[in-house]
Amino acid sequence: MSEGKNEKPFSMKKTVREGDPLILIDFLEKYTKLSKTVLKKILNNGGVWVRALGTSKRLKTRRATLPLVVESHVEFFFDPHLLNLEIPEAREIFSQKEWGIWYKPPGLLSQGTDFGDHCSILRQVEKNKGKGFLIHRLDREAHGLMVFAYTRHAAGSISKLWQEGTVEKWYKVEVVGNIKLHYSTGGEINFKIDGKEARTTFKIIEQKEHTAILLVQIHTGRLHQIRRHFEELGYPVVGDPKYGVGNKNNDGIRLMAYQLKFTDPLSKRAINCELNEIVF
Predict the structure, then answer these.
(1) What region, left, alpha or beta, does residue 144 occupy, with left being phi > 0 and alpha being psi -120 to 50 degrees?
(2) Measured between alpha carbons, how far is 117 from 90 in angstroms, rounded to an integer?
(3) Other beta carbons less than 10 A from residue 103's beta carbon
(4) What is 10-83's CATH number?
(5) Which of helix, strand or coil describes residue 11?
(6) pTM for this structure?
């Protein structure tokens, strides 16, 4: 297979048979026709999965020299666009022993896909801390605060806060239109999302000539809740590539996870983290 720039993403799922190479990178080289240099990069990026004989769970592997046995199963995912992609760097802004709050820049996934995890903030947390556990998600296009646990114990305790809805979450959002025509200082949105109850409240920080800056709080955690609610309201988020009409731009979506408030279940301390260092 050619390694040219115009390649399209492809995947391969193959069971190891008698006569096949029994070292992972040799097996991949035989069936993908890619060079070992490229294959090592894909392995390092997290695009290769192996299910051992007699097991039902596949595991990501980055080990080129992993031994294979006949009847084990290999899954390979390759997107040439991702190979040399410039990855924005996340950073920890509030640190505790077993967990921390990180700033996710726009363009980073919350977690990886079959094609790899090198474009995700979770992988950066793992490389920095040794282990990382995803607590909640933030859209790839958005930026702002995310919480990660560094131990299973902390992950279980902190995840319960999100499940129980006891975390207060605020976002800074810029929307298209003069929202003050219908809402003097703020309002509440209760449109259902995917048939489920969804509640969003907002305050107007600044009304500009064509757009408005809002402080938004979500009280439920539906998929793309803020983006879908404001599109439905008639004031789509500026730069949203998926939702809305007349709101596209080349600068990216204007949505930032700005503030998190909760009680640390480990120390019982009140946590109030605001992202004041990033100019919105």
Answers:
(1) left
(2) 14
(3) 20
(4) 3.10.290.10
(5) strand
(6) 0.89
